[in-house]
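Hey, resending since the last one bounced:
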Amino acid sequence: MTITHALVVSIFKFMADCGLVILEGNIEESFPPDVLIDHGTLRIDYGKLLYPGDILHEAGHLAVMSPESRNRAHVNIGTNGGEEMAALAWSYAASL
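The structure tokens again:
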């Protein structure tokens, strides 16, 4: 899939409508390498962005959390199987 500016803008608009915050910035080390959860926000490294699905999946982690948990979320938050499944379901539904 070729990433287009219009596709990324569409994803960002959807995320903003969901109340999720997106920031642009360099990411040194992360998995995936192009998106980082940083205390309730998503930091996107456009220079490394390969798959727009990475944005939706990481946003899914934040979307299914309570606001309190979201504000504490930082870097690796995919350790709970149930939360991982919820993020997968949310990102799939968002992509539709």
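The longest strand covers residues 21-24.

Sorry for the duplicate.
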